[in-house]
Specification:
408 residues; alpha+beta; two-stranded antiparallel ribbon; 33% helix; globular
Length: 408
C-alpha cells in the first residue's frame, strides 16, 4: 500500500485534510475502530492477527548527481537543468504544458532545450555513470560505500533523497526515482489465480454500479512443480512467476535493470515474452511463501529497511509518531517552514522533503553510507501505530451525502 495516499508533504497542513481522512479510513479498515479486519480476526479467536495478515509499504533512496557534471552540462549546452527537465516532462506527458508551466514539447519532434541539454550531457562522462545509485540495494549491485562522488562531502550528504520526490538525474534526463502511486491492485491467490486491475475489494468497486473500475482474472493452466508450506505443490506458471518476481523486487533479489540494455522483460510483450530464471538461487529463496525461512527473510528485510529510512530521512508516517507533538518534533521542525503561507518573507525549512537529517550522522556522509548499505530492495513495514488514538482527520471533515461516499 502507498505509505501516503497522495504526494509527500506536511500532513498537518490544512490542505492535507483529505489525505489524512483517507489514511484514517485505511487504518479503520486495517487495525482500528473496533471493526477492522485485524480486530475482527482477533475477536474470532486468533491471539495475534499479525501472524496471518501483514501490511507493508515501499520506499527507496537515490543520490542526485548535482556535482561537477551538472554544471558542466549547463555550461556546454547553454540550457538550465530546470528548463530541460520541464521540457522532458512535457515530452513524456508529465503535465507541465497542460498546467501552464511548460514549453509545449512533444514526443517525436525537435525540442530545442531538451535536445541541446541531452547532446551536451552525452559528451560529458564525469559522474554520469552514477546518475542513479539504485543498483546498490539490488541483487549483485555495488556497495554505496564504493560509489565515487566528485563534490564535497557536505554536497553529497545533501544529494541523498528518499521517495516522495520526482527526480530526473542529470546530465542525461532518462533515469527516474519515484515510487509510483499506480492505481492498480493485484491479488495472487495460492500461486494459481491472479486478479489485476483498478477494482478495489470494497462495495464501491464490487457492487457493479458505483465506480467505473475493471480487473482481469488470469488462470494459467500450465503448471510447474513448486512447494507450498513445505509440501510438493502444483502452481500456475504465470501466477507463481509473477509472485516470485515481485517479491524478489521488493527484497532486492533482482539485478538492477540497465535501461540502455533492454532485455525481454523490458521490451513490450508483443516484442518479447517475459522470461523468469526458474531454479536460480534467488528464485529458491521466494519459492515457498509459507516457509519459516521465507518469513524470516521477508520480515527481517522490511524491519532493517524501515529502521534505516527512519533514521536517515525521518519518514512519516512512522510508528514512533503517535500524536501531533511527536509529529512536530520528528518531522515538522525539520521539513516544514515555520513561516505562515501568507508571510511576505518566508523562512526556509531546515531540510527539503525527503532529504537526510544530518544531525543523525555525526560521522558525516561515511556514517550515512554505512547505514544505507544495509538497505535491500524497497520493502518497509507499514506503520500501524502512526497517530494511534488521535483524531487524525474526522473532526475536520464535513461529511454529507456526497463526501461520505467519497471517503467510504
Amino acid at each position: 500500500m502507498p505509505s501516503v495516499p497522495a504526494f509527500a508533504g506536511d500532513l498537518h497542513a490544512d490542505d492535507s485534510l483529505g489525505t489524512r481522512a483517507i489514511m484514517e479510513y485505511q487504518y479503520n479498515s486495517i487495525c482500528r475502530g473496533g471493526y477492522s479486519i485485524m480486530e475482527m480476526i482477533e475477536k474470532g479467536g486468533v491471539p495475534d492477527a499479525k501472524q496471518y495478515i501483514r501490511f507493508y509499504n515501499l520506499r527507496n533512496y537515490d543520490r542526485i548527481n548535482v556535482g561537477k557534471a551538472l554544471a558542466s552540462v549547463e555550461q556546454a549546452s547553454g540550457v538550465n537543468y530546470r528548463d530541460a527537465r520541464m521540457e522532458h516532462d512535457d515530452i513524456v506527458g508529465a503535465g507541465y504544458d497542460g498546467a501552464g508551466y511548460g514549453t509545449g514539447a512533444t514526443a517525436g519532434q525537435a525540442n530545442e532545450d531538451y535536445d541541446r541539454y541531452q547532446q551536451a550531457g552525452s559528451q560529458i562522462a564525469d559522474g554520469s555513470k552514477y546518475d542513479t545509485v539504485s543498483s546498490c540495494y539490488m541483487d549483485g549491485g555495488p556497495s554505496i560505500k564504493d560509489i565515487p562522488w566528485s563534490g564535497s562531502e557536505e554536497a553529497e550528504m545533501d544529494a541523498f533523497v528518499s521517495e516522495g520526490k520526482f527526480l530526473i538525474h542529470p546530465p542525461v534526463l532518462t533515469n527516474l526515482l519515484l515510487e509510483l502511486y499506480i492505481h492498480t491492485k493485484l491479488l495472487i491467490a495460492d500461486d494459481r489465480v491472479v486478479i489485476c486491475g483498478s477494482a478495489n475489494l470494497n462495495d464501491r468497486s464490487q457492487l457493479g454500479y458505483h465506480d467505473s473500475e475493471i480487473a482481469v482474472v488470469i488462470e494459467d493452466p500450465t503448471t510447474v512443480d513448486s512447494v507450498m508450506g513445505g509440501q510438493p505443490f502444483q502452481a500456475s506458471r504465470y501466477a507463481a512467476s509473477l509472485r516470485r518476481q515481485l517479491m524478489r523486487k521488493h527484497l532486492g533479489l533482482l539485478p538492477s535493470q540497465d535501461y540502455t540494455k533492454p532485455d525481454a522483460n523490458f521490451t513490450p510483450i508483443n516484442q518479447d515474452p517475459n522470461v523468469y530464471d526458474w531454479g536460480s538461487a534467488a528464485d529458491f529463496l521466494v519459492r515457498d511463501p509459507l516457509s519459516r525461512e521465507f518469513a524470516n527473510l521477508w520480515n527481517s528485510t522490511a524491519s532493517i529497511n524501515t529502521e534505516v529510512f527512519a533514521k536517515a530521512f525521518h519518514c512519516v508516517p512512522a510508528d514512533n509518531v503517535r500524536n501531533w507533538k511527536q509529529y512536530e518534533d520528528y518531522f515538522q521542525k525539520l521539513f516544514v517552514s515555520p513561516s505562515k503561507k501568507d508571510d511576505e518573507r518566508q523562512i526556509p525549512a531546515k531540510y527539503g522533503y525527503g532529504h537526510v537529517v544530518k544531525e543523525e550522522f555525526p560521522g558525516g556522509v561515511q556514517e550515512l553510507k554505512e547505514w544505507l548499505d544495509r538497505v535491500r530492495g524497497s520493502l518497509v513495514e507499514m506503520p500501524l501505530r502512526f497517530m494511534e488514538g488521535v483524531d487524525f482527520a474526522k473532526s475536520g471533515l464535513k461529511l454529507n451525502a456526497l463526501t461520505d461516499e467519497v471517503y467510504t
